[in-house]
Amino acid sequence: MPDMLSIIIPLYNEQDNVEPLYAKLDAVLRDMGHVYEIICINDGSSDDTRERIDALAERDKRLRVVHLRRNFGQTPAMMAGIDLARGDILIPMDGDLQNDPADIPKLLAKLDEGFDVVSGWRKDRKDNPIKRNLPSRMANRLISFISGVHLHDYGCSLKAYRRDIIKGVKLYGEMHRFIPIHAAWQGARVTEVGVTHHPRIHGESKYGMERTIKVILDLMTVKFLDKYASKPMYLFGGFGLASLAVSGFFFLFMLYCKFFLDKSFIATPLPLGVVMFMLIGIMAIFMGLIAEILMRTYHESQDKPTYIVDCTRNCKEEDRSCAE
Ligand code: UDP
Ligand code: MG
Asked: Which residue numbers delimit the Glycosyltransferase 2-like domain (predicted)?
């Protein structure tokens, strides 16, 4: 029995993309000989996306639809799809036709080689070069360096996961791009494969340069949590001790100068000021990280969903169905 596929597509104001995307997907998937489902998550669209996917779902029961209560963002929308997916292989992709369904067989071929995660690599990315491609290239380098999991394009939504790698993960912020990293850290075999990228024809991109900044801040959290989540004291305590040692050293140095060389630094607060400001800066960064841990704990302990479902179509019976 070939593996069942779940294609997962977050949609936010993609009314003109829904039908052509469905047609392309249908053409590719029909030829592949896999059982499949397409899960469309309407992330609180304010255009006609809702009506259009509902109409498609009416005709095709393999198209499962989740309408979220409001706009939660691409990552929570993707989560909603992952939570619902029944496939052995989960394949998230964008709903704006920038990813090409024709690449799906390529991803699956890599999984067949024995990989658990295959990440798309937009070798020739068709987005704004200054606002998106350049910052994202820099972010990718940084992520690769910090995480030690070397991919070229973490941000490409088109990926393929074996089910057990991704089921049960909790995603928030821009975290969807870090799933392969988490997976690799857990021992999963991760690889990438070149995919086609098309310019966006209908609708608008929901992101600008600020996204890269968010990604980098998320990266710091991910790395930090990986290393110190269970023992933050090793880091904070180490820092505190080092800082005490530095201040002790300067105190002794001043005492020595005063009593043996008769030279006083008391009248020059400037060097101390510089040191103080540096320490305050570093402290501020660590405080930010503590706040991130608290946030993560908050997310995980409350078991609070990162999205809220309004209604669904073609989903499990116990799911709430859309009013006719
Ligand atoms: N998206 C979403 N919720 C949002 C923003 C985006 O579901 O709040 C979806 C969007 O409809 C698209 C995918 O996420 O299918 C990628 O978004 P976009 O094309 O705007 O990102 P870009 O390609 O510019 O990185
Ligand atoms: Mg796009």
From this structure: 6-167
Ligand 1 in contact with 43 (CB < 6 A)? yes
**CA 237–ligand 1 middle distance (angstroms):** 41
Is the C-beta atom of 123 inside 6 A of ligand 1? no
Contact status, residue 228 vs residue 155, Cβ threshold 8 Å: no
Mean pLDDT by runs of 10 across the 324 residues of the chain is 94 97 96 95 97 96 96 94 95 97 97 97 93 91 92 96 86 83 92 97 88 84 72 68 76 82 74 69 74 71 80 75 58
Range of the domain at 236: 232-300
Say yes or no: 143 and 278 in one domain. Answer: no
- Whether 95 is in the pocket of ligand 1, judged by its Cβ within 6 Å, is yes
Q: What is the CATH number of the domain that holds 60?
A: 3.90.550.10
User: Does the CB atom of residue 205 touch ligand 1 within 6 A?
Assistant: yes
Are 13 and 47 found together in one domain? yes
Q: Are residues 155 and 245 in the same domain?
A: no
Q: Is 98 in the pocket of ligand 1 (CB under 6 A)?
A: yes
pLDDT for position 322:
64
Query: Which atom of ligand 1 is found nearest the CA of 43?
Result: 7
Residue 306 is assigned to a structural domain of this protein: no
Relative to the alpha carbon of 157, which ligand is closest? 1
Which protein residue's CA is at the shortest distance from atom 2 of ligand 1? 74
Contact 97, 18 (CB under 8 A): no
Q: Tell me, yes or no, whether 101 and 42 share the same domain.
A: yes
Closest residue (by CA) to atom 13 of ligand 1? Answer: 94
258 in the same domain as 137: no
Residues 206 and 247 in one domain: no
Both 209 and 276 in a single domain? no
Tell me the H-state helices in the chain: 15-30, 49-59, 74-84, 104-112, 134-147, 163-166, 179-185, 210-228, 232-256, 270-302
Structure tokens at 291: 């706040």
Token match 């630094």: residue? 265
Please state the domain count of the chain. Answer: 2
Here the ipTM equals 0.98
